Structure formats: C-alpha cells, structure tokens
Amino acid sequence: MDSALLVPLALALGAVVGGGAVVAVIGAARRGRMAAEVASTSVPDGVDQVIQVLESAGVVLDPSNNVVSASPRAVTLGLVWNRTLVHARLVELVDRARRAGEPITEELELSRGPLGDAALHLSVRAARLGSRYMLLLVEDRTESYRLDAVRRDFVANISHELKTPIGAIGLLGEALGHAADDPVQVRRFAEQLSKESARLASLTQEIIELSRLQAKDALLHPDVVELDQVVAAAIDQNRVLADSRRVALVGGGQKGLRVWGDEAMLITAVHNLVHNAVQYSPSPSRVGIGVTATDDVIEIAVTDQGIGIPEDELDRVFERFFRVDQARSRTTGGTGLGLSIVKHVVQNHGGDVRVWSQPGRGSTFTIRLPRVLEPAPTLTKARS
Questions:
Q1: Which of 220, 245, 277, 379 could cross-link 70 (Cys pair, CB 3.0–4.6 Å)?
Q2: Where are the beta strands (DSSP E) in the chain?
Q3: When comparing pLDDT for 72 and 328, which is higher?
Q4: Taking a C-beta distance cutoff of 8 angstroms, is the pair 105, 125 a contact?
Q5: Closest CA to 268 of 376, 348, 165
Q6: How far are the Cα atoms of 98, 199, 330 from residue 169, in angstroms, in the given order?
C-alpha cells in the first residue's frame, strides 16, 4: 500500500477510536449520575421544609415505599408509624400513581389507628416527586362527613332530653306560687328547683362537650401525656363523692407510661369512668383503677363491685343518653352522656374502650390507647 495513504488512514482510524472512547466516557458518566440519584436517600432541596410546615398531612416516600419525610399531621392522623404507611390502601394508591406516571386523587375511608373502629374520611392525592420519590397529600374531610349526622342526632336528642328538666322547672315554679304561704313547702320546692337547674346545666355542658368531640378533630395541639398525672387527677376529682358513699378508690399498675394526645380530654374520660363506678357501687365497696402496658398498647381499667350491666345492654352503654337504670339515673342526676364522651375521647386518640360486666358482681371498663415509645412523634427525613 502506498505510504502516502497510510497517514490519512491512521488519522481517520484514530479519530473513530477517540470519538468512541469519548462517547463511552460520557455515557458512563451519565449512568453514574443516574445511579447516584437512585441510590441517594435525600429528598430534593426544600421539599422537607415544606412538608414539615404543612397544616395538612404530607408524606414523601422512596421507591420501596419507606417514609423519608412526614408532616406532624400525618403522624397524628395515624397514617405513618415507624417510617411506614399504616394503611395498605394508601400504599396501593402510591403504587398505582407511580406506575401511571400521573397524579391520582381518591376519597378514602380509613381507620384512625391500629386500635378501635373510628373512621377517617380523607381526600388523598399521590404524585411523583422527581424521578425517584412519591408525594402523598392528605386532606381530612372527617368533620364535613360527620357534621350533618351530628346535627340531626343533636336536634333529635336534645329536644327529647331537655323536656324533662325544663318541664320540671316549670311545674316547680308554678307550685312555688301556690305554696307561697307555706315555708316548708317553699323550701322543699326550692330544693327540687335547684336540683333540676343543676341537672339542666350539667346536661347542657355535656352536650356541648360531646358535640365538640364529634364535630371536629379535638386534637389540634396534641402533646405527650403522662398517664400517672391523668389517673391521679381523675381519682382526686372523685374523692369527695367516693368518701361520702364510703367507696374506696384504689389506684395501681405500671408507672411512667405515656400516650400522645390531650391531657384534659383524657382526664375527663377517666374521670367519667370512675364517677360512674362510684355512683353505681354499693356502700361500702371499692373501685379499682389499674394501668398496664404491652409493647404497643396501654390499658386503663376501672373496676367496680356495683349492680352490673345486663348482657343484652352491653352494646348500647356508649350510646348518647342511654341509661342502664333510668330510675337510678334520675336519683344520681346522670345525663346518659358520660360514657359516650369517654368513647369519643378515646377514639380521637386512636384507641378504643371495652366493657365487661356481670349483673350483681360489677363491671370493668377498659380504655386502650397506642403507647408512646419515643419522646416526640414528628418524623424527620432519613439521610445517610
């Protein structure tokens, strides 16, 4: 071959080989960047800050559906636990949005927590966040779903329950007018009038409290609650009544246990159980308040030696205005709302309340709540 042709040929061959090498290097660098993005555990800049200030529930998930960032609201709604989504339907929605490559919005009804049957009505939207992550945004619509039912029930119940004390007050007022010249009768009617007035005030206050618990999420500002303080306060509030009825209040169980929620609401729930136990206990007797815990659940049990509850009425004791013994409730001034308030307080905390009873032997009401094992419930982003 002519040596004059070898030089251009060699140059051309060198250019081809060099160009191929450059393309290979560029491709390798690009694949390296893509692999680094896939292997990275950090969320895109600024996303975590946005998630943490959301008033609604927001969750960022990696390709394995591990939670790398969640807003405090997502935790308090019971959607996230131990860096995973609690509900399989949420995981399914995220997977469908990931496969479709487009945002998906659905209305879902989910349980509030691992315990109990309280439901959440949610508007959920899942969408891609960059090439790696998925974003889950959740709006709580529970209040709007409950509002109509609460209003209907409220009007029906209140119109019925207020008839008795209002009617009694009217009759007593009329009787006072006729007995104006009889001091003994005036005093007797005045005492009855005071009792009916107090009953009306108590009924009104409990209706307001129950409506507040049902109409919205009362846990707007939850915190870690020490159950030792809750039980002690509930016992102290019932001490005078118990002493007057010769009922001993005995507390016991594990100490130092904590739950996530509202201390005042939990005190009200335990107080109502202790108050009922004292009211329906013979004299003398005792009421026990015990606290126990497993790995994930705390139980507060209130046990009495009272009249008990018939088996066919156990499923109704948490209904509004339901009373096991109507005559006894009138004597004690009961409104029939105490146990309903207990139920809704516990449900708002992601738990449930159970009852065991045997007529003539007594009853045990048990509040079950998710246990707090960490000092704070806010999840932060996972970074390597």
A1: 379
A2: 57-61, 67-70, 80-81, 84-85, 104-111, 119-129, 133-140, 223-226, 247-253, 258-261, 285-293, 297-303, 352-358, 362-370
A3: 72
A4: yes
A5: 348
A6: 65, 11, 15
64 in Cβ contact with 40 (< 8 Å): no
Number of alpha carbons in the 13 Å side-chain half-sphere of residue 29: 6
Q: Which two tokens mark 274?
A: 């202790």
The pair of structure tokens assigned to 62 is 């990696």
The pLDDT value given to residue 292: 94
User: Are the beta carbons of 126 and 136 closer than 8 angstroms?
Assistant: yes
User: Which CATH number, 3.30.390.50, 3.40.50.1820, 3.30.450.20, 1.10.510.10, labels domain 47-142?
Assistant: 3.30.450.20
Do residues 320 and 343 touch, judged by C-beta distance below 8 A? Answer: no
pLDDT of residue 145: 79
**219-373 CATH, one of 3.30.565.10, 3.40.50.300, 3.30.530.20, 2.40.50.140:** 3.30.565.10
Q: DSSP secondary-structure letter at 180?
A: T
Helices (H), 162-257: 163-178, 183-215, 227-237, 239-244
Token pair recorded at residue 351:
């738990």
Structural tokens at position 319: 């209904």
Distance CA 52, CA 55 (A): 9
If you average pLDDT over residues 33-55, what whole number do you get? 64
